[in-house]
Amino acid sequence: MADAAPTPAEPAEPTVLDVAEWSRFEIHSGGKLAGFAAYRTRPGVITFTHTEIDTAFEGRGLGGRLVRAALDAARARGLAVHPACPFVRSWIAKHPDYADLVPAEEHARYGLA
Q1: Pairing state of beta strands 80-83 and 24-29?
Q2: How large is the greatest C-alpha to C-alpha distance in the chain, in angstroms?
Q3: Which InterPro entries match (predicted)?
Q4: Burial class (CB in 10 A: 0-12, 13-18, 19+), 22
């Protein structure tokens, strides 16, 4: 019996992409769009406005992975973060090592310690 031809495998790990032309970070799982984090930018600042995970992908921690990757990208680019999105804001509150991305004078506005 001959071996079957190899088929391209889906990435084992979800992937996050910055789709700048749509102003959003996307997370893909199993080759499908699982969710996104929309943003607006201005010089030196990125404001996260909305995060959404498709109901078919909920409960897998993809929202947290998406936000972490987006914040890591903001840090790498030297951008200040304004978490207008409640999900991003609550994620930062639970991960204080990312609070430094939000300007100190904005912490009270976003309910960050």
Answers
A1: unpaired
A2: 69
A3: Gcn5-rel_NAT, GNAT_dom, GNAT_YJDJ
A4: exposed
Percent of the chain whose pLDDT exceeds 90: 88
Residue 2 has pLDDT above 90, yes or no: no
Asked if 104 and 94 count as a contact pair (C-beta separation under 8 A), the reply is no
Q: What is the 8-class DSSP label of residue 107?
A: T
Look at residues 47, 80, 53 and name the one whose alpha carbon lies nearest to residue 66. 53
Q: Which tens digits make up the pLDDT trace of 103-113?
A: 999 999 999 97
CA–CA dist 16, 27 (Å, integer)? 4
Beta carbons of 74 and 67 less than 8 angstroms apart:
no
Sequence-distant (≥ 6) Cβ neighbours of residue 109 within 8 angstroms? none
CA–CA distances in Å: residue 25 to residues 1, 2, 7, 85 = 45, 43, 28, 13
